[in-house]
Amino acid sequence: MAISHLFALGAALSWTLAGLFSHQVVVRFGSLHFNRMRMLAAAFLLLGMMVVSGGEFRLPEAFWLPVLASAIIGVVLGDYFLFVAMRRLGPRRTAMLFAGNAPIAAILGWLFLEEILSLLQILAILVGFAGICFAIIYGKRRDLLHIWEAITPPLWIGVAAGLFAATGQAVGVLILRPVMAAGADPLLVGLIRVSIAGLIFWLSWPFDRKKSDYPLLPDLKMSFLILANGFFGLSFGVFLLLKALETGAVAQVAILSSMAPVMILPFVWYKTGKCPAWGAWLGAFLVTLSTILL
Questions:
Q1: Is 225 exposed, middle or buried (0-12, 13-18, 19+ CB in 10 A)?
Q2: Which of 59, 153, 188, 283 has a Cα-to-Cα distance from 243 of 20 to 30 A?
């Protein structure tokens, strides 16, 4: 197995842990304010990693535009909708929808880049869609009342938010691939992306009608959860993904970094004390199979 494959699998596990740490906080603060705090935490973490590793704080001028576009599409829009879905659907269903970024990337390539879809790719997209349906409709046990499995109605809002998040992730990764292949520092690119996204999120603070509902800074427990999410989701996880993109093909990296729907199930089992329903397992494996076929 190539080192890029290990980095991609590590990114999938890191994002799985980030999702588990985020649910309680996003339910408390909402997607917008949670992203403000996590971007701030991630920026400080990445800055510390840059200093410790002795990285150079210089990005070639030609890289700035794709990094900026990736930050806006993949982080600002993608992460905002990701945690809207997390708040409404819980970590398991959100991970399932977010893993749909691979078939979504194939559809976008067909629509906008005039890429031809083979019969195998069409089959893969249908398999992925079936997996998402199984996981959402048949993925919950009737005797499981844990908050991770609760759905805030209407269901379609959470599903749409998850699909928007997956689309943002797909577009953001495709934009960054040439930058990483050209040798950009993964830590510096990650730091710039979260700093840009954090600035945009914090600029929205004066216009947030719900800002009186939560404190500007959270308590100790919430701070730990935000810090853990920032580390696994935006710092260490993104670092592993960008390292994988340095030498790995986008398709292979997308396949292995999309294993979160399968990886999250043992954590759900441990946390709730009950084995996830058959629909959750079947859906997770179908979505993973879809990515492999693509």
A1: buried
A2: 283
